[in-house]
Amino acid sequence: MMTDVVNAGAGGMDETAPFENRARRLSRRSFLVGSAFGVGALGLGGCASTDGLLLAEATKTYGPMPNEKFPVPAVDISKVDPKYYRRTVSYDTNEAPGTIIVDPSKYYVYRVEGDGTATRYGANVGRQGFLWNGDAYVGRKSEWATWTPPKEMIKRQPEAAKYARGMPGGLDNPLGARTLHLYQNGAYTLYTIYASSDPESIGTGITSGCVGLLTQDMIHLYARTPVKTKVVVLPA
Question: What are the alphabetically sorted keywords of the record (predicted)?
Fold first, then answer.
């Protein structure tokens, strides 16, 4: 396991909200609301409806992960629009298998599978003024990384100063369980793809340029993404 001390910088958490409120509500949501949805009930005669089957699959996909260093609770999937559930979809691209493609306009992250399909994850993305696009690559990977607030944030919000030497990894850490650090031309961009514990953030633009996936999705993507993997961020 590699644990990094990371300065959130340009890709840091949304600094406009009170720091303590973010720490409570966002947990692993830094650099950083979807709407509740109704699920289909069982059909007549005991046959499950399509919605019921979808809910059952999502409940399994986003269930608790007790074997993590810091046990991860189940996602409250009632707070996630079903269109953002992880699924395999048809995807036409010339990018090589394994490439990660971020589509901020649709709040999706794709992992190209190489057979005309991709694994698609729902995401949160940068808010207006913090959107960016271009090619990058995964320069580093970290599990339960230490988070360090930038000096600019501490200046505006002195209460963040208690983490000036870093917030250790854990359930309340903004970087979450897994982080992919994005680089360009050998330099860290300060942007990441990270694990968010806030299901209501999926499908919204709330971050300072980073991209957040539900923790279970991020752990799934992280395990399949080696260092040097190409990342394409499409225009919003």
Answer: Cell shape, Cell wall biogenesis/degradation, Glycosyltransferase, Hydrolase, Lipoprotein, Peptidoglycan synthesis, Transferase
